[in-house]
């Protein structure tokens, strides 16, 4: 009797920082934010290893595998940019969260639940004297191929989407996480707030939205910050925002249809299946990131952010320029 091998999880991640104008103080002189990630510190080295010298702006991202390769954790965090107005670097808090989350995975015998990881990351960041102040959204997704389970903890307006192929091989949406917001563009956020900032928004890991889903071979999972979801339609817009000839398939799924077709033609009858899957995930991740960045500056395209702004009686044409962090995973039979 043969035991069927657990499916494999193939991952990729990508990121991009939005353009930033030099900060200038009231006296007209360059302004340096306090609370920068200290060069050559453990946090700096971790971030540099994850980003390979790149720049994710105020976002943080990480993908961590268990020692036995059966579980993968994908996580993103979006530092709240409003702290820059107070002279504080927003990226330190979001990166500290995912740094400690990584330590929480590596120090455990088995991969903890997403909520446990969020709690570990939050309270260790609270105890870190080197992190003075900050806030961040966070989305943590654990994929367990041995158990066939996706578990998540999402707090704020980062999020994830689970897709599954239909009988024709086209990806369909199984679940799209909703944003947690107090008001429009004001998300739930984990925070470290000293007494002088006591009026700032503060949430805790217990406030995260917890979910579990069945995980099957063929599934794709995307975890991203709001710089992606604010610019790429992952669900159909409301009827009043659609023209009669508009496609009946969400923008994200249309893009994936195109990428599936082009990739299948490129790899037709060639290459090792695992190499083909790995290349597909890399291509999808990098292409979706670049597409989201293009959408940010497209004034003629109605973005998800524009639609939400209109619901709140605000006029915000086109895309929303922001940092983007994106993780992608594909579950394949071993």
Automatic annotation (TrEMBL):
<keyword id="KW-0378">Hydrolase</keyword>
<dbReference type="InterPro" id="IPR039123">
    <property type="entry name" value="PPTC7"/>
</dbReference>
<feature type="domain" description="PPM-type phosphatase">
    <location>
        <begin position="45"/>
        <end position="288"/>
    </location>
</feature>
<dbReference type="InterPro" id="IPR001932">
    <property type="entry name" value="PPM-type_phosphatase-like_dom"/>
</dbReference>
<keyword id="KW-0460">Magnesium</keyword>
<dbReference type="GO" id="GO:0046872">
    <property type="term" value="F:metal ion binding"/>
</dbReference>
<keyword id="KW-0479">Metal-binding</keyword>
<keyword id="KW-0464">Manganese</keyword>
<protein>
    <recommendedName>
        <fullName>Protein phosphatase</fullName>
        <ecNumber>3.1.3.16</ecNumber>
    </recommendedName>
</protein>
<keyword id="KW-0904">Protein phosphatase</keyword>
<dbReference type="InterPro" id="IPR036457">
    <property type="entry name" value="PPM-type-like_dom_sf"/>
</dbReference>
<dbReference type="GO" id="GO:0004722">
    <property type="term" value="F:protein serine/threonine phosphatase activity"/>
</dbReference>
<comment type="similarity">
    <text>Belongs to the PP2C family.</text>
</comment>
């Amino acid at each position: 009797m043969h035991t069927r091998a657990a499916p494999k999880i193939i991952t990729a991640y990508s990121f991009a920082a939005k353009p930033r104008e030099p900060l200038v103080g009231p006296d007209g002189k360059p302004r340096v934010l306090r609370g920068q990630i200290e060069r050559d510190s453990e946090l700096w080295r971790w971030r540099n290893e994850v980003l390979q010298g790149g720049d994710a702006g105020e976002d943080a991202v990480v993908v961590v595998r268990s020692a036995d390769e059966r579980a993968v954790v994908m996580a993103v965090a979006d530092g709240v940019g409003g702290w820059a107005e107070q002279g504080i670097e927003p990226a330190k808090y979001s990166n500290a969260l995912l740094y400690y989350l990584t330590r929480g995975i590596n120090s455990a015998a088995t991969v903890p639940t997403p909520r446990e990881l969020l709690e570990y990351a939050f309270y260790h960041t609270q105890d870190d004297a080197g992190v003075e102040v900050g806030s961040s959204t966070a989305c943590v997704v654990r994929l367990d191929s041995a158990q066939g389970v996706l578990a998540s903890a999402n707090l704020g307006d980062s999020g994830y989407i689970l897709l599954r192929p239909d009988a024709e091989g086209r990806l369909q949406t199984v679940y799209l996480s909703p944003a947690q917001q107090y008001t429009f563009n004001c998300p739930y956020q984990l925070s470290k707030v000293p007494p002088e900032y006591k009026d700032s928004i503060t949430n805790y890991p217990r406030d995260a939205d917890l979910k579990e889903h069945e995980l099957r071979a063929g599934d794709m999972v995307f975890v991203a910050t709001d710089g992606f979801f604010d610019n790429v339609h992952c669900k159909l817009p409301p009827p009043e925002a659609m023209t009669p000839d508009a496609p009946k398939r969400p923008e994200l799924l249309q893009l994936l249809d195109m990428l599936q077709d082009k990739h299948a033609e490129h790899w037709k009858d060639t290459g090792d299946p695992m190499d083909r899957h790995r290349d597909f995930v890399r291509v999808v991740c990098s292409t979706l990131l670049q597409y989201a960045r293009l959408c940010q500056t497209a004034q003629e395209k109605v973005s998800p952010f524009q639609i939400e702004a209109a619901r709140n009686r605000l006029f915000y044409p086109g895309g929303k320029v922001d940092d983007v962090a994106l993780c992608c995973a594909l579950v394949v039979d071993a």
